[in-house]
Amino acid sequence: MARVARGGQDAFEVLLERYENAVTTFCYAFVRNRDLAEDLAQEAFLRVYRSAPRYKPLAKFTTWLYRIAANLCINELNKGRLRRAVSLEEPAGPNPDGSRIVERIAADGRLPLSQAELREAHSLVERAIDRLPDDQRTTLVMVEYHNLSYREIAEILGVTVSAIKMRVKRARESLREMLKFMGPQD
Amino acid sequence: MQCSDVRELLSPMTDREVSPEELRAIEEHLRSCKDCAFESTMIVGLKGLLQKWEGVRASAAFHARVLEKVRSDPAQLPRHPWWAALAIAVAIGCLAVGVAWMELGAPEGATKVAARADQAGKPAEGTGAAPEATGPAPAAPDTAPGTQAGPVAQLILTEGAVHIDVPGSTSALGSAGDVLLPGYVVRVSERGRAELDLLGSLFMRLEGPARYVFGRTGDEGELLAGTALLRAGVRGVRNKIRCGGAAVEFETAGLLASLARGADGGLRVLVAEGSAEVSSASGSRTLRAGEKLELSRDGSLRTGPAKAEPAELDRLRRWGRP
Predict the structure, then answer these.
(1) β-bridge pairing B291-295 and B301-307
(2) Peptide bond preceding B209: is omega within 30 degrees of 0, i.e. cis?
């Protein structure tokens, strides 16, 4: 970041390369629309670039970066322009596939899944995450994908650590329930 | 530890968010409770599954698009600070307006409207200085809606919830890079903080819960609540910050100071470097480096000027250190 502040576009490019997928995923967790997530991620990087000369390391760089992205996403959601991209209909009925994969991994996490199972797992997880309530989804993605601590997430979202702990717990409970009811075509 | 206690902690345990004591107690419980042990393996399994998720990959064009935006960004930093370019643009604009004004003659009543705006410290309606009065809240107020009132500050950093209230409109969450116009109010939540660049004249940190309203320029404003730490920017200009019934004036060159509004409406001023004049109903006093004073809500002197505590000065200097 110091090199970006000194005017290095090369340094900014390195920073962009390192965080572009992470920030896009972060924004997607809020808005659930890939195009909009990219637009917001782009704006977040532009703000990072513009603010670089005045950046003071008061917090971890990633906390600052995600805070910028979170503010943009929250503002976007508040504007009410967003249309829900995913149907939130209740699942039709129980399907053992989701919970079977969870149990399989739980039984022996060292066993690799087959390619087909892995694809199926990715698809199931993504659709299940999409269906979580907004606050649970964003928090769970920050924990599982971005590997942020509860404290960092609390700073980014401006809420308490206890609230984050509760959201993550509820998100996992919701996800387990959903995975029990979700099938390959759901 | 009871099953209900353990179930509450299984999720944070998988994220390594429990204390060593809690971890020991959970592990001991799991050795003797099959139900909780099963629950634990399911949560661990779910975490394993989630961690296999690859997230959303940015499109192939994203990287190039962002770089193109950066290259074409008018705020090419740091060789040409955006505010320097803006200042030049505003100066040229003012000159052009001034020439046209003299040639055409000022419209009736326009001067009075501008004067009212000055007195209120807010943009007046009809001057072209007011931000959008209708329509959705701006994601970030990053464009000057009028030509007479340019940006007065920029948010550098936010922690916790920081809101920007736009007069006559609504509010938006603020984030680093947001530009602030005259009349905008920055609100910082409890335990939050906002770092602001008052366009070169000062750096300010607002510590929540706090509210600060910007005046006609970045060199004046009003601290409505909370604490403001002030550090000299690049210019040595005269600033004035109103605080209820009192006003604090200072040259920015070499200044390091803090202003704090108490819950009772009182004001506490502390100067670590430089000096400041504090004026209120009880008169005017100069505070020098290492001094502090306290005023009551009505502007009467409560204590000081007196020597400040070393710990208070150290805290301010730690923040002010480049």
Answers:
(1) antiparallel
(2) yes
d(CA A3, CA A53): 10
Q: How far is Cα B133 from Cα B144, in angstroms, rounded to an integer?
A: 13
Residue B68: how many other CB atoms lie within 10 Å: 11
**A6 phi and psi angles, rounded to 5 deg:** -80, 5
Nearest to A38 by CA among B177, B108, B60: B60
Given a contact cutoff of 8 angstroms between Cβ atoms, the answer to whether B162 and B189 are in contact is: yes
Q: Tell which of B7, B15, B57, B63 to mutate to test the A interface (max A CBs under 10 Å).
A: B15
Tell me if chain B has a CB within 8 Å of the CB of A64: yes
Instruction: Confirm if A2 and A15 have CB atoms less than 8 A apart.
Output: no
Cα B191 vs. chain centroid, distance in angstroms?
13
Chain B CB within 8 Å of residue A162 CB: no
ipTM of the complex model: 0.78
Element (H, E) at B286: strand B283-287
Q: How many CB atoms lie within 10 A of CB B199?
A: 25
Cβ contact, residue pair A79, B137, below 8 Å: yes
Distance between CA atoms of residues B318 and B321, nearest Å = 5
Question: What's CA B271's distance to the chain center, in Å?
Answer: 21
Question: What is the Rg, in whole angstroms, of the alpha carbon atoms belonging to chain B?
Answer: 26
Q: What are phi and psi of A178, to 5 degrees?
A: -65, -40
The Cβ of residue A161 has, within 10 Å, a number of other Cβ atoms equal to 16
- Residue (of A96, A116, A85) closest to A183 by Cα position: A96
Of A34, A38, A51, the CB nearest to B177: A51
Q: What is the pLDDT of residues B226-240, one digit of tens each?
A: 999 998 766 667 889
Say if residues B321 and A58 touch (Cβ distance below 8 Å): no
Q: How many CA atoms lie within 13 A of A16 on its CB side?
A: 28
- The residues that bridge with B246 in the sheet, in sequence order, are B243
pLDDT in tens, B71-114: 876 655 444 344 444 444 444 444 444 434 433 333 333 322 22
Torsion of CA B134, B137, B143, B145, to 10 degrees: 10
- Whether residue B50 lies within 8 A of chain A, CB to CB, comes out as yes
Provide the whole-model pTM.
0.50
In whole angstroms, what separates CA B35 from the centre of its chain?
A: 50
Q: Rounded to whole angstroms, how far apart are CA atoms B19 and B31? A: 19
